[in-house]
Write a structure and sequence with these properties.
It is a single chain. This protein has 11 helices and 12 strands. It is of the alpha/beta class and 281 residues long. It is globular, with a radius of gyration of 19 Å.
Amino acid sequence: MKLRRILIMALSLIMALAMLAGCSGGDGKKYIVLEENFGEESFSVGMRLGDNALTLKFQEIMDAMIADGKADEIAQKWFGENVVLKGVDFPRAIDAAAADDTSLQYILDKGTLILGLDENFPPMGYRDESGEIVGFDIDLAKEVATRLGVELVIQPIDWAAKEMELQNKNIDVIWNGMSVTEERAAGMNLSKPYLANRQIIIVPEGSNIKTKADLAGKKVAIQAGSSALDAVNADAATAAIIGELVEFADNNSAFLDLKAGRVDAFVVDETYGRYLIANND
């Protein structure tokens, strides 16, 4: 827990410096992050429930990337700091693969690892100016696929339908800054957490919203099917006073409504939220 707090502070500092460099944005407004938030968490990679052979091989590769410095090299590229979590365990224990577990061989036989993501979640996975999907998670996934000996296929999905996409084998992994929750840990295999995160509250500078209590009667933007939504709903006292949770298909749309004044606040993953503020144009 202490390590997680240190990493969260480091990541927050990095994002805060970026925010100071460009927070005014093209709309002439500034946006701030409230001190109060909806709790600390961490990112993990999701695989089909019971696909233990694939999960354990995947984790073996990720652990090797952490040990040989490749994961830190990728983190330096995207965050300017070695923020990859180390020494953490699976959210739920993954047993040794059974003799009839063909999940790893299935990937090797078809020669592809299909990564499902929300393509609007920088800096984890998003389309750059040329239309190419890039990001921290994408670079990690490319290295994993190379070491596994298969081709990485990047498949944008409706984030709210990610579990269905996984179970239907339209994708093989959910890898896009997906926060660990009890529900997800029960419904799929999760990798060891690799990055710390928080669910933050963003408001326009000058807003009368200073704390979670000030969300009483307000409209709050949030992505449908997200861990941000789960975190708000888990905070029963705050959820009960919010005027309306306005759900959006993606976080970009939620932030646009905040900028347009159609909502009063926006709850989002810290990594993405601070990126949006820093690159507001």
